[in-house]
Write a structure and sequence with these properties.
About 45% of the residues lie in helices and about 10% in strands. It is an alpha/beta fold. Among the domains are: about 30 residues, no CATH class; about 160 residues, Rossmann fold (3-Layer(aba) Sandwich), CATH 3.40.50.
Amino acid sequence: MSELRPANQQKEVGNNALGSSVYRLSAEKRERGTRGERDRKRKGNPLISNLWLLGKRGAKLSELLFFPSFCRLCHRLLDQLGERVICRPCWQRIHPPNLPACSTCGRYGEIKTGQDVCFNCQQEKWSFSFHRSCALYQGEIKEIILLFKYARIKFLGKDLANLALSFLANSFLWEGLDLVVPVPLYPKRKKERGFNQAEELARHICRAKKIPLAPRALIKIKDNLPQASLEAKERRQNVKGVYELIQKDQIKDKTILLVDDVFTTGSTLNECSLILKKAGAREVRALTIAQA
């Protein structure tokens, strides 16, 4: 997926560096093509397919014998194909709440009978048109998000993104989207963690939905206090002047999906949505994995 270069990126690149980059790109394309051809041959030939599956099972058996690993949540042995860090039963215990959700902020269990908008949304106008999340921030989903962010287990981002795609498969959230924008992380924090969790989620969603990603449309210019340490009123003030738009041309007249990991008061999503709307976005919708 192509991304716009930052404005301050150097324009001149040495011939050797350019040649090396082109060579690496060509090698990656060749590798992807070869791998895709191998996959097609394997799927079209039952014998090759069975041998491939047998090889994977043999590799799994060797792993279990010499390098056993256990679920980080329930400590069960990871003995099934495809299991990494979290066992399949723990993933299967995650479900969307069986509660009505507000049609605007997406909060579960906050609306009265016969209504579709919660009391808070009747009093407060959001900059995003509506928000949706997969689950409540508790139990397995909370522990997985914490492992993803603070234990720096980056590949859990793909699993969490797939969860969102599955749980929200029939949501209007995906209709007519032009662009996906992740909530940015302050550069120092991103360097410490090694990645921006919102960007990882957004990247996998974009690949699955074939929607363009704008990972640097918004940047975070101030290292403000962590939102988790503040009360609701303090959170709204804490995000003022923290974010900045640097790719305005990408935003104008677009329907945008703003992505983050957790929705608490909505202050961060609201502030980012406000900036995007002021830049000319037609509509901003919001997606998080869980709501606290």
